[in-house]
């Protein structure tokens, strides 16, 4: 009796090499896009935080400057209360630590950092040794570039063209600070602007 032999064909279904390559390519593209979005999100979050921190530091610095400039007084040596008056540097005498002695205070822009140098009165006769200056950073990312941080006005509210030669006429100082973590792209500069009238130079006293 003849025996019928049944042959089973192997299932040849599945993905071709081309299909696998297409799926793999799509998968890689999705990974790259997802990674790019994640990186941009992290960079954006870091920038927002850094900008907010820079602005807050700028505000704190401006508050300090306003208070210290407002109570400027004659030096312990008897020198006039304003020493150096320039667009990006202001040196004056003020009791910034409330110890009843005036310190020599130097505000200046160093690249993009607003700094303050302080010299304590010392010695007999009393003096302000430059070697004793202590410098601290007040605020970073200052974007004034060549613009003035300090502008000086007379008693009539008129800007003084040559303040260095007319220190005795200064009655008010305008503080103007521009802050920007990334000046080459948005957002625009954050502006801090304040007018400071020196108490000991008021004409109505």
Walkthrough of the structure:
The protein has one domain (41-201). It has one helix at 17-70; strands spanning 82-86, 89-94, 103-110, 113-119, 134-139, 150-153, 172-179, 190-197. A hairpin with an 8-residue loop joins strand 2 and strand 3 (103-110). The chain has a 5-stranded antiparallel sheet with strand order 1-2-3-4-5. A 3-stranded antiparallel sheet has the order 6-7-8, covered by helices on one side. It is of the alpha+beta class and 205 residues long. The N and C termini lie far apart (134 Å).
Number of strands: 8
Number of continuous helical runs: 1
Whole-number mean pLDDT = 86
Q: What is Rg?
A: 33 Å
Distance between the termini: 134 Å
Query: How do the SSEs run, as a string of H and E?
Result: HEEEEEEEE
Strand percentage lies at 25-35%
Shape: elongated
How many distinct domains? 1
* Strand order within the widest beta sheet: 1-2-3-4-5
Q: What would you call the structural class?
A: alpha+beta
User: What are the low-pLDDT stretches, counting only 5+ consecutive residues below 50?
Assistant: none
Biggest β-sheet strands, sense, barrel? 5 strands, antiparallel
How much helix, percentage-wise, in residues? 25-40%
């Amino acid at each position: 009796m003849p025996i019928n032999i049944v042959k089973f064909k192997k299932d040849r279904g599945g993905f071709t090499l081309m299909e696998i390559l297409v799926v793999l390519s799509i998968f890689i593209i999705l990974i790259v896009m997802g990674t790019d979005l994640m990186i941009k999100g992290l960079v954006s979050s870091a920038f927002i935080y850094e900008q907010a921190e820079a602005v807050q530091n700028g505000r704190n610095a401006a508050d300090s400057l306003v208070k210290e400039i407002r109570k400027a007084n004659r030096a312990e040596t008897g020198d006039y209360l304003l020493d150096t008056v320039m667009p990006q540097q202001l040196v004056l005498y003020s009791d910034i630590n409330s110890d009843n002695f005036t310190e020599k205070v130097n505000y200046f822009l160093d690249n993009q950092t607003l700094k303050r140098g302080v010299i304590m009165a010392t010695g007999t006769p009393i003096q302000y040794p430059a070697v004793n200056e202590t410098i601290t950073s007040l605020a970073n990312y200052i974007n004034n570039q060549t613009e003035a941080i300090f502008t000086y006005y007379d008693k009539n509210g008129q800007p003084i063209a040559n303040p260095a030669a007319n220190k005795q006429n200064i009655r008010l100082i305008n503080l103007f600070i521009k802050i920007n973590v990334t000046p080459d792209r948005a957002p625009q500069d954050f502006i801090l602007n304040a007018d400071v009238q020196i108490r000991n130079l008021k004409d109505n006293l």
